[in-house]
Amino acid sequence: MSPRRRVLLVGVLALLGGYVSSGLGKGLLGQLWWRAEEFCDLRAVGVVICEPARPLIPVFPQLAELLLLLLGVLALWGAARWCLRPVRDLADPIADLGPQNLGHRIRRGGRDELARLARAIDDMMDRVTAGYEGQRRFAANASHELRTPLAVQRTLIEVGMAQSLTGEQLDLLTAQLLATNERNERLIEGLLALSESDQGLRSSTPQRLDEIVTTVLAAYGDRAAEAGVTVESRLAPRIVPGERVLLERLIGNLVENGIKYNRPGGRLTVTVGGDPALTVTNTGQTVPGEAVAGLFEPFRRLARDRTNQGGGAGLGLAIARSITQAHDGIIAARPGEDGGLRVDVQLPALR
After folding, report:
1. What is the pTM of this model?
2. Which of 90, 216, 261, 310 could form a disulfide with 251 if both were Cys (CB 3.0 to 4.6 A apart)?
């Protein structure tokens, strides 16, 4: 029986019990406790002395009322426990949930309130499980990404210590160590940026999105020229609420990916408008449609499409997604018409 029906039944029984006990109190119990008629005595000729009705036992009515009150409290206590028994039965499977058995589900049938609560808990556990597994994959991938360059550094250092190196060999060794160290710095910087964006916005103020795009494109002008990529911009005035530093990082990651995942002589187009607020499109090799969604996962990348083999951590789009979500926006991607990728970012308008 559902808790609602149990409470309804207890309420009906309580009303009936109150009605019956009230009648008994006024009827049978009243006749036992009180003298119902006046007591009259003929003390003298022509003189009648009458006494009013009074309790036969003065203390008994108070004791009886206290006993009835105690019985009522006990009855209510038992009824409350009976009504809440389904909740206690639901607490046991919830207590079994934990990191070691995230796949456990309650799966309670029915349409009552507890069934709805059980389904809500199961849905919550699905989301928690997905997030937990995502964190595990993220930690495993981050460990792998850090272990590889550290192993390369260790090997280079051991080679330098094992034998005497000429000046040319020493220059080559130091250049390789420097490149490996720069890769580590980019990875750590990306992890920190992803962690900060996941924490949400510290503040939100009106920002000119078109002006931020202009600043970012100016900063990446030389890199685009080196890669042989032509940059085009179509910027309309657009004000969005947010944090400038994070918005700059969002646009910078999309522009950097648009240059990196391009071809010599290719094109990068950045558009600021109404809906979507920001669009970044690049040319290049065709991106499989089934692989697009995975590009927003940390450490996912299409290495064969890169014109710049300097490497990266594969965190660019993951950070872009996190920043967009922190701004209550939506980011989506699809293969471009001329190859490459088109990324659309929807951001709320300033109210």
Report:
1. 0.57
2. 216
